[in-house]
């Protein structure tokens, strides 16, 4: 009888600890499940890699002796719960920081897109291009060969003109055939430009740059491409063509000319400060090699941009 009473008393004493352990284990399971979900969100594609708790229960070499209170298991579980809660807090903070960075990046991108759209719209509706025939320092040298070749294109009307009728505006441009492919292709583009057939000239000049990048005519063709855009009323495209010629072929024969025209294009794009920087660059890099006529054109360009 006494033995039964003693067993009952022991069971009653151990019951709260057992219930508490079950409750803590339930918390642990829930926290571990939540942590895995958070880790999958923070570390997507992590091949199942999971963070381990920073606090671990010490490993006991021997279990509790007979009659020892059953508190070590609960202490270990509590340590696990504390460690998991700390990790959950840290991971939650990381998620909030990442979300905040994402919002900032999205806002920055939206602002950039709006400003870029407005800039492109302004460029597309910009003022008419400047005249490129003459400057204050004298006429601008055309991009024709300097070795005795023709300076104007050879053209012939598609239809014969009759007395009293206006001259046809559409002309057929002959392609030269000298046996020098780079020279012939460039001269064909030059003739198209001089005939004011700008789209055809631009396509031809791009072909020269792409197919003969090592030829001296590549610098001529890239510069004339910019001039064609400028004459066509596209100063934005012209500025990019001129800049590419100077950047990619700074030793080319038409690199100084491209900087000169780039300054004019930027002035037409209402960017006088940038135009002044280009003129400064032209003087610094090529000032000693510039002819008197080009120096006069630079002075006229600086005056138009109101450079100091």
Note down, in words, how this protein is organized:
- This protein has 308 residues and is mainly alpha-helical.
- Helices cover 63% and strands 3% of the residues.
- The chain has helices at residues 2-42, 72-124, 181-194, 198-211, 217-232, 235-248, 255-268, 272-286, 292-304, and strands at residues 134-135, 138-139, 155-157, 171-173.
- α4 runs antiparallel to α5 and α6 runs antiparallel to α7 (255-268).
- The longest helix is centred in the first third of the chain and has 53 residues, at 72-124.
- Residues 1-15, 53-58, 123-141 and 145-163 have low confidence and may be disordered.
The largest sheet has its strands arranged as 1-2
Number of helices: 9
Average pLDDT metric: 74
Q: Shape, please?
A: elongated
Class from secondary-structure proportions: mainly alpha
The residue ranges in which pLDDT falls below 50 over 5 or more consecutive positions are 1-15, 53-58, 123-141, 145-163
Q: Give a quick account of the main beta sheet: strands, pairing sense, barrel closure.
A: 2 strands, antiparallel
What's this entry about, in short?
The protein is mainly alpha-helical. It contains nine helices and four strands.
Helix and strand arrangement:
Layout: H1 2-42, H2 72-124, E1 134-135, E2 138-139, E3 155-157, E4 171-173, H3 181-194, H4 198-211, H5 217-232, H6 235-248, H7 255-268, H8 272-286, H9 292-304
Antiparallel strand pairs: 1-2, 3-4
């Amino acid at each position: 009888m006494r033995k039964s009473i003693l067993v009952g008393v022991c069971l009653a004493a151990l019951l709260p600890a057992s219930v508490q352990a079950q409750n803590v284990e339930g918390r642990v399971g829930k926290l571990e499940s939540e942590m895995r979900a958070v880790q999958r969100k923070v570390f997507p594609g992590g091949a199942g890699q999971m963070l381990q708790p920073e606090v671990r229960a010490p490993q006991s070499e021997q279990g509790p002796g007979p009659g020892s209170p059953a508190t070590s298991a609960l202490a270990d579980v509590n340590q696990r719960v504390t460690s998991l809660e700390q990790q959950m807090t840290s991971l939650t903070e990381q998620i909030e920081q990442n979300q905040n960075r994402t919002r900032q990046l999205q806002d920055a991108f939206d602002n950039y897109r709006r400003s870029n759209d407005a800039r492109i719209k302004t460029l597309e509706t910009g003022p008419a291009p400047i005249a490129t025939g003459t400057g204050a320092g004298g006429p601008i040298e055309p991009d024709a060969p300097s070795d005795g070749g023709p300076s104007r294109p050879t053209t012939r009307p598609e239809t014969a003109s009759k007395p009293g009728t206006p001259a046809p505006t559409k002309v057929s441009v002959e392609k030269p055939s000298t046996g020098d492919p780079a020279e012939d292709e460039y001269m064909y583009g030059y003739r198209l430009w001089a005939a004011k057939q700008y789209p055809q000239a631009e396509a031809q000049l791009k072909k020269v740059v792409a197919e003969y990048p090592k030829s001296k005519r590549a610098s001529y063709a890239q510069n004339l491409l910019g001039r064609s855009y400028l004459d066509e009323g596209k100063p934005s495209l012209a500025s990019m063509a001129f800049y590419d010629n100077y950047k990619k072929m700074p030793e080319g024969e038409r690199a100084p000319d491209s900087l000169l025209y780039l300054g004019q294009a930027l002035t037409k794009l209402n960017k006088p400060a940038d135009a002044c920087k280009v003129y400064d660059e032209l003087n610094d890099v090529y000032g000693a090699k510039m002819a008197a006529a080009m120096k006069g054109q630079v002075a006229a360009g600086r005056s138009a941009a109101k450079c100091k």
